[in-house]
Design brief:
6 helices, alpha/beta, binds NADP nicotinamide-adenine-dinucleotide phosphate, FAD/NAD(P)-binding domain
Length: about 300
């Protein structure tokens, strides 16, 4: 496991696992540093209805398990831990994981993105005590309780709809007067008997000592303040790329996303990126998979010295 590798893939979401399948089939014997949260964001979702090949839909965790099993059919090694340091200045690149330093001629960064928080005074303190960013993980604890979801995108709709299976009432709190979510998801939420929407409203703080008991709200149009009694708050306001480890070593944009220079290659020749870690536009399971495929093909060409600049 410790010998120098042709390619190390960081991340095990749809991008990382697809890169692994392609790299393995190109006989690059990839090592995947899968992270402690294997399967990426899809492992935290529920129904995936838009991944081609699943006419009846598929559960996110199941899709990731299938992708992993597909990768395991080929010559792929996995370490289910987080990389703690990297040195991407020049090849051979170094990746430190579980106290060992691994070397590779090429690296594919597929570390994805993580949920954003609102940054409220009591939010972090109450995570795990009623504040969550993952309905599939935590909805079970809110059986017959009242919960709120903040956000107006597809994630917020998905979280709210999932929560209706457990909670007695779900209130979506959105800062504008229309959703950003796709029409089909927005309509499903708006039609649901258990879901209410508070438009033009922001959460100013989470109330509760040991556990969430309510929210302090402000209407952004009237400036009127009010309290909403809820047992849980689900934050679904988008994501940020997981790039802290690479800061100062490869070029990132203002929001922290990896900048691609030549196809999937980053500012450092030999270091490639795939999926939500650089893609702030599409951010879909299927596009992440496609980026993973492209990155693996680019690595193959790079290592052959036939295409991308070295
Ligand atoms: P998103 O589309 O960026 O939506 C984020 C939402 O949070 C927006 O409505 C935004 O409000 C709101 N927001 C952001 N910062 C806020 C703040 N500080 N306070 C209050 N509200 C805030 O993110 P997403 O919903 O996570 O979706 C990300 C991507 O994944 C999208 O491309 C989406 O299509 C995709 N996705 C797809 C599915 C599916 O197809 N089933 C499911 C989940 C996600 P504004 O609208 O005012 O900006």
């Amino acid at each position: 496991m410790d010998e120098a590798r042709k390619v190390i893939i960081l991340g095990s979401g749809s991008a990382g696992l697809t890169a692994a399948i392609y790299a393995a089939r190109a006989q690059l014997r990839p090592l995947v540093v899968a992270g402690s949260q294997r399967g990426g964001q899809l492992a935290l979702t529920t129904d995936v209805e838009n991944f081609p090949g699943f006419p009846d839909g598929v559960q996110g965790p199941e899709l990731m398990e299938l992708q992993r099993r597909q990768a395991e059919r080929f010559d792929v090694d996995f370490i289910d831990e987080d990389a703690t340091a990297v040195d991407l200045r020049r090849p051979p690149f170094e990746v430190t994981v579980a106290g060992r330093t691994l070397r590779a001629q090429a690296v594919i960064i597929a570390t994805g993105a993580s949920a954003n928080w609102l940054g409220l005074p009591n939010e972090q303190r109450l995570i795990g005590h009623g504040v969550s960013s993952c309905a599939p993980c935590d909805a079970f604890f809110f059986r017959e309780k009242e919960v709120a979801v903040v956000g107006g995108g597809d994630s917020a709709m998905e979280e709210a709809l999932f929560l209706t299976k457990f909670a007695s009432r779900v209130t979506i709190i959105h800062r504008r007067d229309r959703f950003r979510a796709s029409k089909i998801m927005a309509e499903r939420a708006l039609r649901h008997a258990k879901i209410d929407v508070l438009w033009d409203t922001v959460v100013e703080d989470v109330l509760g000592d040991g556990k969430v008991t309510g929210l302090r709200l402000r209407n952004v149009k009237s400036s009127a303040r009010s309290d909403l009694r809820v047992d849980g708050l689900f934050v679904a306001i988008g994501h940020h790329p997981n790039t802290e480890l690479f800061r100062g070593q490869i070029e990132l944009d203002d929001a922290g996303y990896v900048v691609l220079k030549e196809h999937t290659m980053t500012s450092v020749p030999g270091v490639f990126a795939a999926g939500d870690v650089h893609d702030r536009r599409y951010r879909q399971a299927v596009t992440a998979a496609a980026w993973g495929c492209m990155a693996a093909m680019d690595v193959e060409k790079y290592l052959e010295g036939t295409d991308l600049p070295r």
